[in-house]
Amino acid sequence: MYYLVQNDSLIDQSENKLDLELVIESGMMIFDSWPPAGKKFANGEWIEKSISEKTEDGEISLEDRRNILKSEILSFCYNKLEQGVQFQSFNFQAREEDLIRMSLALKKIELGGTWSGYWRDNVNQWRAVTVEQLGELALTAGNFWETCFRKSRTLIDELPSKSKSQLSSYNINQEWNQIA
Known about the structure:
Elements: E1 2-6, E2 9-14, H1 17-23, E3 28-31, E4 39-42, E5 45-48, H2 51-56, H3 62-83, E6 85-87, E7 90-92, H4 96-110, E8 118-120, E9 126-128, H5 131-158, H6 164-168, H7 172-178
Antiparallel strand pairs: 1-2, 1-3, 4-5, 6-7, 8-9
Helix pairs in contact: 3-5, 4-5
């Protein structure tokens, strides 16, 4: 079914879109649902609903909302790890691949290899770092990674217990900061 709409009023409807295209006038729109799915009328025009509004109105299932939030939480966590940790007045990334590289560098040193004396910060500038500092950086970054992993896992694990209202108004940053 197709619906001919002017502002927020239904003017006509038809199973054939061409019928409505014959009578459409300036300021009218044709939608394939009424009210139009995913849209709301505000300030004289039809605009997209927010994901929160779509969830609240049942246009997005709770399972889909949970999956969207899970992806957003993982992305939020990854961004935190990319921003990294402050060490020796610089920020160093703490992603899993950075921790692996630090571990490999420390193992190489342990096996008698030589250390270059530099590590890249989160803006890709090489910074002088002693072997001892590299060990401290690895511990600091590792602790930060563990904290981020624990927080993201906690938020994801709590999603099934959230109500429709809580899921629709979910604020990742606020939820993240509430976890010690």
